[in-house]
Amino acid sequence: MPPLMGIEFLCRVADVLTDYLGSLNEDLIKDNFVIVYELLDEMIDNGFPLTTEPNILREMIAPPNMVDKVLSVVTGNRSNMIDTLPGSTSSCIPWRTTDPKYANNEVYVDLVEEMDAIINRDGVLVKCEIYGEVQVNSHLSGVPDLTISFANPAILDDVRFHPCVRFRSWEAHQVLSFVPPDGQFKLMSYRVRKLKSSPIYVKPQLTSDAGTCRVSVLVGIRNDPGKTIDSITVQFQLPPCILSAHLNSNYGTVNILANKTCSWTIGKIPNDRAPAMSGTLVLETGLERLHVFPTFQVGFRIMGVALSGLQIDKLDLKNLPKPPYKGFRALTRAGEFEVRS
Q1: GO cellular component annotations, sorted alphabetically (predicted)?
Q2: What pLDDT score was predicted for residue 90?
Q3: Range 109-121 average pLDDT
Q4: The domain containing residue 15 runs over which residues?
Q5: pTM score, two decimals?
Q6: Maximum CA extent, the chain
Q7: 156 domain residue, yes or no
């Protein structure tokens, strides 16, 4: 097996388990061991990947729920597998349910992006890039053929596609041509590098002497994206040498968690003032100055805009009896957004 195939298969396993269990951790795998075993038995055969499409696996193995868990305890039958093999497993389009039918045909396309950025202690943007996904939710009858074209595909880098995408169409014309799976799936992922600015700024100032450290943090909008920036949070880990912290803000709430993490929840930036947090950190006995300064983790969300600048030009559909409803959305949120002090 080629090395990259093994890595891709492990990523598929993680995605499928997350889709089934809601998240992925050791306790969930132990609690749902039978389903995990059955999924792995279907996903790999004789050491080679076989069925890895979540939509088809859901037809073969029912996702866990409370009723099934109660019945398994009563009856002793813990298997969630169906008795008959889905027809799509022998189809030439193995990722799509066999001949689905809907009264209302609908397809929704979402651009979901995460901004990773590093800002140094002088306020200079060292790194800023976008990791994005094109997510599709398709409820279309029959075997539709879809084509998505972008207004500016040249900005995309490190693209990765769902198996349904015809790669030759992308290589030749930078167009996504595909027969979609039924339901929600990730059509492609991409990266946009070397962005020049971030939507918000966070300016921390720390001055330390005489066994204390004074903290001041200012947050505001740097470049207005034209949409509301909400769910703004600022977090930082208190150094081990800090005995106590007294912090307050003129907007939002400040909490010191049990693991010595300071969390400042702002939400939306008000129009009448810039949110500011200030206070004092008390150092342990014998320390005059703070020598290890924290890194601030910033979170935010912007609905209705893709900060990478990627735009969907059009979505064409074929092999449908009547025109479907088409919907488009965009979302940008903070990924690894760090401000150093």
Answers
A1: clathrin adaptor complex; endomembrane system
A2: 58
A3: 95
A4: 3-90
A5: 0.81
A6: 79
A7: yes
